[in-house]
Amino acid sequence: MGKKSKNPFSNQTKSKQENVKKILEKIGEDGATAKEIREDTSIKISEKTINRHLKEFLSKGMISFSPIGKKYTQTKKGKIELNTIAFQKLILDTIIDKSGDNKTDYSELRTELENCSLAWGIESNLIMSKKLQDVEFIRKRSKKEIKKNILTPEDVEEIERLLYSKIAKNLKEFSKFHIKYDKVKKALQDERFVVNFNISMKDIQDSIQLKSLETYDKLTPEEIKNKFQVIADSTEGLESK
Predict the structure, then answer these.
(1) CB 102 within 8 A of CB 125
(2) Average pLDDT over every residue of 226-240
């Protein structure tokens, strides 16, 4: 693995989310025409970019279009997306306010494979506050000092390799049992998905101290069901008051 460079935080992700949020807010439940969206002074992007977003929203079912009045209307899926963006923005803004950095292709595995003319398909992007980046300890191994952070590029590479093996296994099984696999495979060529981990250092440190995962893994299905029932009963009791 090569030396990892520290890139300054890029506003690209934040700007795109802002644009999506503003367009969806402008459309709202009452709807809006393309002209009304373009004329909104708070949406500071080109007509071409607005049209591209609208086309994307339509294909994803986030908005609908009515020829009568030529209005776009926000769907239930669009409302969910808007709430998700608002939540993600809150997290991003919190990290940015703490001098956060965005490290694109953090493990550098994608770059290394592509340099060997090999396809990969997974890119790891790490957004972390400066305080977390600066936390490191030095470990001695074979008379050599090794610096370690909370989450190293090597750690993230392990996660990428695990994702790769899981997806490869599932696709292999899918190809065996789906009679129209070749057709489906072709239809999925341009699709993407994002696996998002939002890490709270307070909660994860509490979890480690309490051995939460180890405790959970020892619970029987019946014990888990009973615990859920206790929570459901207590919630129902609060609502009836």
Answers:
(1) yes
(2) 68
